[in-house]
Amino acid sequence: MSLGLRIFLVYVLFIGLTGYFVLNTVMEEIRPGVRQSTEETLVDTANLMAEILRDDFKAGTLSENRWPELLRAYGERQPQATIWGLPKNQVNHRIYVTDAKGIVVLDSSGVAVGQDYSRWNDVYLTLRGEYGARSSRSDPNDANSSVMHVGAPIRDNGRIIGVVTVAKPNSSLQPYVDRTERRLLFYGAGLIGLGLLFGALLSWWLSRALHRLTGYAQAVSEGRRVEVPHYRGGELEQLATAVEQMRTQLEGKAYVERYVHTLTHELKSPLAAIRGAAELLQDEMPAIQRLRFVGNIDSESARMQQLIERLLNLAQVEQRQGLEERVAVPLAALVDELLRAQAARIEGRRLKVEQTIAPDLLLIGEPFLLRQALGNLLENALDFTPVAGLLRFSAERVGEQVELRLFNEAAAIPDYALPRLSERFYSLPRPDSGRKSTGLGLNFVEEVVKLHGGSMHIRNVESGVEVTLRLS
């Protein structure tokens, strides 16, 4: 299981448990909260009615005036109100009045007049000067049929002479409770969903960042060229920097060891030739023979210098993980510049040159490296092109890449040599002299092409050889 998935699962568990406990706690508090608020309103209403009815109750005229009719009319009213999107089409308060003995003397429902309510807490406690309230079921078998009752004392000079009770069924509150619970569940689910989405994005980002770093480490272990991932601060940037420093130190040590071994091996032949010629020159010999040995020393010294310079250039390119600059390079102008630099050699061999690259074709890259790579490619082609032969440069844009082709008229390359041409120190004999080059030119070209995110292909074609560079 990936680290990102593990983090996401832990995050899901945390969000799920937190959301469950929070929502469950809030849901359990909704119903009591609504009932407490309603009870507070009932207290106010009961005390208001106690003051309104006090004089008529004290005079004993409640049933003789219009109070029964008024309360009955009140119970029949249809408010046609809309409260928070919910319709209210009837009043739900029941109001009844009991005397000092708990006998009902007035009832808005008209069903309890004359009954003894002294045993109910709303009457019993109020008559004793305490807060009287109760919640009773109208149907003992139905938990949703409970009704809240709140009593308020009717006083005469401080003496309690009766009780006014205001009752409200809890079923009238249920629509508001249900609506609040639905909205809470909706918003709660939305917040949990957003939290999980954020957690998924965070896990994806972290997993992707670690995957890039892992891919970089794997590429380094396989010897592939790849740029170090870039992060904006934090531990990931520190880790990437540390890995890059470790790679640089390890590769640098191995690289130096490999190049010292290679350079030692390649310098053996020219050094042996120089030493042999120098020993022979210490003896007496004809002037012509002496000049020949001196020429051998000069040519082998030049070969050693060229080998060292090319090794240094190749080492510089191989150690780099990316381009130092990216600018638009006019490809036609660059090729023309290289052809002018080789004009003497081209004219001396009477070569025919064709350059069909569009003037507005641009290549994004590092100009210095591109100039060196194409220069090496041109020199290699000139070495194998016969007198009065043909050189042809062409290029075109293919998708997001530029495809550059260099054709030179020459004998076909042997099949066994084709896959090895870009190997370090591998070289074929030149047709004119039979001597081999350092074998570093095409290897350098391939390294530069890879730095530019491209590839190099060499193949035999009709009447010659064609090198194709695909550059991003």
UniProtKB/TrEMBL annotation:
GO terms for cellular component: membrane. The chain crosses the membrane at residues 6-27, 184-206. The keyword Phosphoprotein applies. Its main location: membrane. Gene3D superfamilies: 1.10.287.130, 6.10.340.10, Histidine kinase-like ATPase, C-terminal domain (3.30.565.10), PAS domain (3.30.450.20). It is an enzyme of class 2 (transferase). SMART domains: HAMP, HATPase_c, HisKA. The keyword Lyase does not apply. Keywords: Kinase, Membrane, Phosphoprotein, Transferase, Transmembrane, Transmembrane helix, Two-component regulatory system. It comes from the Bacteria. It is found in: Membrane. GO terms for molecular function: phosphorelay sensor kinase activity. InterPro entries: HAMP_dom, HATPase_C_sf, HATPase_dom, His_kinase_dom, HisK_dim/P_dom, HisK_dim/P_sf, Sensor-like_sf, TCS_sensor_his_kinase. Its EC number is 2.7.13.3. Residues 262-472 form the Histidine kinase domain. It catalyses: ATP + protein L-histidine = ADP + protein N-phospho-L-histidine. SUPFAM superfamilies: ATPase domain of HSP90 chaperone/DNA topoisomerase II/histidine kinase (SSF55874), Homodimeric domain of signal transducing histidine kinase (SSF47384), Sensory domain-like (SSF103190). Residues 204-255 form the HAMP domain. NCBIfam families: PRK11100.1. PANTHER family: HISTIDINE KINASE, SENSOR HISTIDINE KINASE YKOH. This is histidine kinase. It comes from Pseudomonas jessenii. The lineage of its organism: Bacteria, Pseudomonadati, Pseudomonadota, Gammaproteobacteria, Pseudomonadales.
